[in-house]
Amino acid sequence: MSAEISREAARRFVAGSAWKNANTVVGTETDGSVHLVLYGKSVARRHNGVVEFNNQGYLSKTTKDRLNAVGVHYGVSVQQVKYTWYVTTKEGREEMPANQWVLVYGTPMAYLAKQLRD
After folding, report:
1. Which of 14, 65, 69, 106 has its CA 20 to 30 A from that of 21?
2. Which contiguous run of DSSP H or E holds residue 21?
3. How confident is the model over 84-104, as pLDDT tens digits?
4. Model pTM?
5. What is the rounded CA–CA span in Å between residue 66 and residue 49?
6. What is the helix (H) or strand (E) element at residue 27, kind and residue range?
7. HEC sequence for 55-118
8. Domain ranges of the chain
């Protein structure tokens, strides 16, 4: 059941359509951004061609499953090695810090512009 929820949430995230099932919500904002929310915390967001992940400090299998389901659509994956999370993109693999947004897809300039606006 969890894998089905992850796949449907990812599909809705990519499509930008609101959806809810159990502990997972895909929400859209008036500015065009899309959020994948798990247990009330946004773990993935997309805006202006930029996708970011944040485990919100929850290093759980469910969080990793939701992020990896989204990542399939962007060529990104999240792995855990000895209690440390890593995100792998086309640029390589880097440690994924807890409670921080990590750029996983998109143009770095769009990402920087977004960070300046926030």
Report:
1. 106
2. strand 19-21
3. 999 998 889 999 999 999 999
4. 0.89
5. 19
6. strand 24-28
7. CCCCCCHHHHHHHHHHHHHHCCEEEEECCEEEEEECCEEEECCCCCCEEEECCHHHHHHHHHHC
8. 2-101
